[in-house]
Amino acid sequence: MAIVLTESAADRVRSHLAKRGAGIGLRLGIKKTGCSGFAYVVNYADEVRPGDAVFEARGVKVLVDSGSLPLIDGTEVDFVKQGLNEAFKFKNPKAKGECGCGESFSV
C-alpha cells in the first residue's frame, strides 16, 4: 500500500518546504502516547534515513520509518483549515478507535 496525500495536504507541504528553502518532503510517523495509545508525528524531512519507506503522493515525497509503517500503511493525510485552526488530519484504515480530539488512535 502507501501513504496518500490529498491535494490540500500536498499543497501545504510544498508551500512550507518553499518557505523553509530546504527539505525533500513530509516525514510521517507515530509514537506511543495519548489517551488512545498512539499519536501521529509530522515533520518535514531533510534526508532519507536508513529504513525509511519513501512514497510519492501528488508530487510530494512522504517518508515513513519502518517501525511506524505497519500501523499507518494506507493512511490518507489531509490538511484542513477551520476558522483560525489548521492541521493535518488522518484517515487511517488500521485505526480501531480515536480519542475525541483526534490526536491519538488505537489499533
Q: What is the fold's blueprint, element by element?
A:
Blueprint: E1 4-5, H1 7-20, E2 25-33, E3 37-45, E4 53-57, E5 60-64, H2 69-72, E6 76-82, E7 85-91, E8 97-98, E9 104-106
Parallel strand pairs: 1-6, 2-5
Antiparallel strand pairs: 2-3, 3-9, 4-5, 6-7, 8-9
Strand ordering within the main sheet: 4-5-2-3-9-8
Main β-sheet, in a few words?
6 strands, mixed
Give the structural class: alpha+beta
| Number of DSSP-assigned strands | 9
Low-confidence stretches: none
CATH architecture: Sandwich
CATH class: Mainly Beta
The helix content, as a percent range, equals: 10-25%
Distance between the termini: 17 Å
The tally of domains stands at 1
| CATH topology label | Hypothetical Protein Aq_1857, Chain: A
Q: Specify the CATH homologous superfamily.
A: HesB-like domain
Beta-strand percent range: over 45%
What would the principal axes of the Cα set say about the shape? globular
Mean pLDDT: 89
Description:
- By secondary structure, the chain is an alpha+beta fold.
- It has a single domain, classed as Sandwich (Hypothetical Protein Aq_1857, Chain: A), CATH 2.60.300.12.
- Helices cover 17% and strands 46% of the residues.
- The radius of gyration is 13 Å and the shape is globular.
- The model has no long low-confidence stretch (mean pLDDT 89).
In a nutshell, what does this entry contain?
With 107 residues, the chain is of the alpha+beta class. It has 2 helices and 9 strands, in the order E-H-E-E-E-E-H-E-E-E-E. The protein has a single domain, classed as Sandwich (Hypothetical Protein Aq_1857, Chain: A), CATH 2.60.300.12.
